[in-house]
Amino acid sequence: MLPAAPSLDARIPVHVLTGFLGSGKTTFLRHLLDEPSLAETAVIINEFGEVGLDHLLVREVSEDVVLLSSGCLCCAVRDDLISTLADLLEMARSGRVAPFRQVVIETTGLADPAPIIHAILSAPELLHRCRAGAVVTTVDGVSGSNSIQNFAEAIQQIALADCVVITKTELVQPWQVDALKVEIARVNPSVRSLTSGKGAMASARDVFDHGQSPKQNPKHLGSGSVQGVHSHGIKTFTVEVPGEVEWPAFVEWLELLLAARGQSILRVKGLLPVKGDERPVVIHGVQHVVYPPEYLPRWPEGSPRGWLVFIARNLTRAAIENSLRSLLTTRY
Fold first, then answer.
1. Backbone angles phi, psi at 197, to 5 degrees
2. DSSP category for residue 245
3. CA distance 330 to 13
4. 145: part of which helix (H) or strand (E)?
5. Number of H helices and number of E strands within the chain?
6. Strand partners, 289
7. What kind and span of H or E run contains 155?
8. What is the torsional sign of CA 196, 200, 201, 205?
9. pLDDT digits (tens, 9 = 90+) for 230-263
10. Residues 104, 44: contact at Cβ < 8 Å?
């Protein structure tokens, strides 16, 4: 097990795992939850979209996962976060769930961590039972530089981090990782930087750094109400994909879409029924990149049979639906 909190503060640490859209938070969380040191961990996942998906991927590893309702933790569902934490603590106290030694909150890629930390530090119902743990920010080794240069959210996530994990390092050259570290240091000179890629992922002990004393009054937070900041024009919408799709044709369509509108499409993810395969196919795309598909063993109960969630800037649902009509024969 991970070492307990310092003897002067036995409260449960609440760690925040954040990072810009597509930076690999869920993949990294799945890796961390495979470690025995995180066996007694409660996980809360928040998604910015009309349909949740990431929790399905994490649930394959850990059953102690709570999915908050749609919205951003730093905005619409902050009260839900507080009540969820309070409920988890009460259920553990009464024996309705197994005891846990720490909590990990995985935020949406658009979340500003400051209001989340502020809520943990200031909510009366949490004050004597929880403390703010580490803020861990994943930065995409491929597109992280672009995110830092173009999105306030990415900068804020790095600025508030105790530890930055540069992901997907197997896809870039060492000099590119070094250059990204320089950009990260310009935003947060004191942050610990780790790298993580296939075959060489950072460990939970390194990431959450339990040897450090918790920060009781982070200087970044100030006092009073803290509001999250989002880039102008970002919205989320879901597009239904009726019927089974031909996989090669769909991939070609998605690649062409991201090539043409990648700067507008921050992220696309979804579940698809594919001809010739009974399993639902998990789709992930970030800006100009389509990632290899994953598969769920079965369709989630109550889930629509085909859908794509877009997080986009200055792009409408109608534009995507019009584009899909060129691929699908079923009319919306």
1. -155, 175
2. B
3. 50
4. helix 144-150
5. 11, 13
6. 286
7. helix 152-159
8. negative
9. 565 667 788 888 788 888 888 888 888 888 887 7
10. yes
